[in-house]
Queue: 2 jobs
Job 1
Amino acid sequence: MKKALQALNGLEREGVLGRYAIGGAMGATFYVEPFTTFDLDVFVVLPEAGGLVTLAPLYRELAKRGYPAREECVMVEGIPVQFLPAGTPLLAEALAQARDVPYEDVTTRVFGPEHLVAVAVQAGRAKDRQRVQMFLDAGVLDRKRLDGILSRHGLMERFSQWTRSA
Amino acid sequence: MDPKRITVAEAPAGKDAYRTKQRKLSWPDKVKVVIELQKIAKPILAARGKSVTVWPQD
């Protein structure tokens, strides 16, 4: 993963990517126990083309650099990376407030734990519910901060339902 | 706790201790665990017709 992170940092430095941060399962793994996942979710700010956010220019640039698209991912140094636009207010906030973290001698960026939980609540799938429970079990959440995020993005009710019956 | 001699009553505590230990690993060490989990899952998913990529080790 180190080489993939170095590649992402290079892409950001060269302006191919805007600010990026890791979310999804690998983002969660930074805070909780490791679990099975096969892709690296990378949230990015993308330039708009005619009012539409498009991944096409990014994919073209990545292909030129030897990173081919495969299904919904791009293979970056052998790792399937899914580039996802931070296209909702919650994701934009999570990206803006993502924290710098070390991976060996490489610095990368990961969503904060409270934002990862809020994104999981918003996604609403069974695996997201399990992930929320992992965060609660791990005791890594700042509940005041989490409550603020959930309230701001209209997610408090679903979170309460999930945790009431957990 | 001897893992070969464990009572049913002791099992949940053992599982919690294991999860806590896993949680405290460094991120690179967690990624090594994820890769091992990928290796285990790959043939199971292949049998269901799903192709996945096991990540290269750093």
Job 2
Amino acid sequence: MSEPVVDLQNVRREIEAEVRARRATGEYPPGFDSKLDELFARFSPPEASDDFDAAVERAEEAVAIDLVIPVASNKPGIGLFKRVVAKLIGWYHAFIVQQVSALGAAITHAVRLLGMRVDQIERSAGHSERARVESARVPTARDDATWNDAVVRALDACRGRVAVCEAGDGALLRAVVHAGLDAYGVEPRFDLADGAIATGLEVRIDDAVGHLRSVAPGELEAVVLRGCVERLPVGEVLDLVDLATARLAPGGRLVIASLSPAGWGRGRTEIEADLAPGRPLHAATWTDLFTARGFEVVTSEQFATNAPITELPATHPDASTLNHALARISAELFGPDAYVVAGRLTRA
Amino acid sequence: MTSVHQFVPTLAPRDAVGGHYLAVRDALRDAGYSSEIYAFEAKDAYKKLALPFRSFEGGRPGEATWLVYHSSIGSPVADFVLGRREPVIVDYHNITPSSFFARWEPYVAGQLAVGRRQLAKLAVRAELGLADSAYNARELHELDYERVAVVPILFDTSSLGATEPDPALLDRLRAAKNRGGADWLFVGRISPNKAQHDLVKAFAAYREHRDPQARLHLVGGTSSHAYVTALEKFVTALELDDAVEITGAVSEEAKHAYYEAADLFVICSEHEGFCVPLLEAMHHRVPIVAYAAAAVPETLGTGGLCLPVKDPLTVAAAAARVIGDAGLRAALTAAGTARLADFDLASSRERLVAAVRGVVGPA
């Protein structure tokens, strides 16, 4: 009898859809995953901590070498033998222990001094990790719907999987899904991700780098980078782009949806921009980066996220002069402050 | 006669790589080469099967001699091989990135880092790199190994049926099953890179939302006391002590019993260079749900359900689907059996000998 054949890709999609549906109905409560993560973290040993002080404390504990030589044994006679050996080498053992302990203590002290100097440098030069923590506390100021139309156009004719990183509250992802694309989101903030999941969207709770690392090379038809590309330092942005590129199938697309440097820090993004360790790049820079990485730039749209100043009606006696001035003021204040740049990978 | 001798860190029974060394020796001898195993240490029943590596003094005058170094961790054997003048073949079984162990077992992390450095140094000496998987081969290419061949680990799948399941254990497992609840199984060392804590999370979700009587069996020794301690505390905090069994190292008979009783093999590992337990699960016709990391998708092929994510709710949903869907289960076990045939020992031996002959020449 022949065994049944199943479409495993379809089974995977059904499973993912089921999980989304259960999350949406509340059967799977928000934060379920993060609570398990936090619980396991409680049992990690001190040296598993990323905290510098905890790590140095652990090193200081390890420096204290036991002076007492163990002599117990389950085997008859061996205990006596060990006691004799301990007696014979006791003085030398203590001599070596004192020197090794002194060396260890000196090294850990030096590491502590080095840590203090690094702290001072970070305080004076701007501490990116502190800024990152502080900015994570600030509610993100985003209205991703601004990019909906341009991103959907940039993804035109994509047939494979599309990852939208970050998905935020799901506005952009929803537009992409409604356009008929097989898209899912990636969002590191539990509250935003849970909110998007609750509306039935498929969202992975992870940061863009962490998620893309877990994706097999060539598995995605397109990657949309939104949000993270505004806040990350340039070096991390370049790493992220290289990682996303490696995950694209031949002919795949990389889409950048970002505020421009001119728009970043204006209006609702003021606080986020002040605290973020990075800043958005210009659209032209993305074009250059894409070209250098073997992409053909297929979309470069710039647009304004704010409406221009309303012009005077033509019936106004000074309409021509004033409207010309208003147009210039509008362009200055409310000109293009967002863009979508998309590239198609031309090399395998 | 040409000699092709193997140099290994440790030769031990109940270890897939240990079985590979012996199978390689036999394959080389059958192909007409003279072949011995030289080890840093040989354990238990394999003690007399290897010679001390420092006892190697080179081949007989006028006889071509090659050295095959098996790389899986840092070892003084690698430095010994590097110091020799004979041409070298490196058989790479993957070295777990030290970052997985740095927080839990700094000493092991150091050994792993040493292993990676030695592997890099061997690149200039290696006439050929052998890799268990394409995943491992990519790592060799990244280290500038010029010539690399993929040869699956030599694993005698027919040996899996050689032992009978431990009858007392099998009775206990079946009695528990008769009281209700599915049995999840994972076989492999308890180790940070194998991420058994993620498996426990998924199992907790499964118990809470799908099957409150389910059981999870984590079978295998440990590579990290700190990690297994944290795992045990985690299990207790989740009030799963009665449901999660951490067995430690077990006999082949006991392992057979666990496979017999399992409804599902689940793997959430972050890093595997090949993953022999997948083949074992296929042999025992246990359906597989796996997180697609490192070489797992490659070894699994279409022989199981591979997930792109391993969040607890998705893994639990996948497990529920496989356990509850008889058609899917039958299809997965059939696909597993078919996939297992790809690792047939005879064809893997042929690939190995052909790769070796390609650089060494005929015996």
